Amino acid sequence: MTIADTKKTMETKMDQSIVAFKHNLQKIRTGRANPALLDVIHVDYYGSMVPLSQVANVSLLDSRTISVQPWEKNLSAKIEKAIRESDLGLNPASMGDLIRVPMPPMSEERRKEMTKLARNEGESAKIAIRNLRRDANESVKKLVKDKLASEDEQKRSETEIQKLTDRHIAEIDALVAAKEQEIMAV
């Protein structure tokens, strides 16, 4: 493995960390409805627990209401129960074969809790990025130790690895700031 391979692998993993972080941010509630909030809910479907999106169509009715339309009529009660029992604090209402999930307005205190949650997710993502930096630097040091790379190449690569790390951490900071602004918008 060369220094270039190490950097390419590290950058790929960092990009994957950013994608995972964005996915985690989607699950954090804002004032508006988001169908991704219900991704964590699993429904009992003939004895096995399956994600809600596999047994129903989840979409937005308006900015504060999510609609869930089960593909089988007998699942409505189970879906309602699963949403009600989730820790999201939602209260679904059935209207025929359509389930409406209104998003309750968030209090100022709840908004602050959500921003803390977003910051914690951001910090976890930064830790993952820094761990990847450490692993890449150790890999380069091993190449130098095994005489497969020079010390000059090591210094150059450490600088480049740090620049990649800084760029990804700045991206995480920007995503956290945008999410905080979205959460605090009334």
Summary tags:
16% strand; Ribosome_recyc_fac_dom; Topoisomerase I, Chain A, domain 4; 186 residues; elongated; Ribosome-recycling factor; 4 helices; two-stranded antiparallel sheet; 4-stranded antiparallel beta sheet; Gyrase A, domain 2; alpha+beta; Ribosome_recyc_fac; cytoplasm
Secondary structure topology:
Blueprint: H1 3-26, E1 42-45, E2 48-51, E3 56-62, E4 65-70, H2 76-85, E5 93-95, E6 98-102, H3 108-145, H4 151-184
Antiparallel strand pairs: 1-2, 3-4, 4-6, 5-6
Helix pairs in contact: 1-3, 1-4, 3-4
Describe this structure in words.
This protein folds into 2 domains: 3-27 and 107-184, Ribosome-recycling factor (Topoisomerase I, Chain A, domain 4); 35-102, Gyrase A, domain 2 (2-Layer Sandwich), CATH 3.30.1360.40. It is 57% helix and 16% strand. The chain has helices at 3-26, 76-85, 108-145, 151-184; strands at residues 42-45, 48-51, 56-62, 65-70, 93-95, 98-102. The strands form 2 sheets. A 4-stranded antiparallel β-sheet has the order 3-4-6-5, with helices on one face. It has a two-stranded antiparallel ribbon with strand order 1-2. A hairpin with a 2-residue loop joins strand 3 and strand 4. Helix 1 runs parallel beside helix 4. The model has no long low-confidence stretch (mean pLDDT 88).
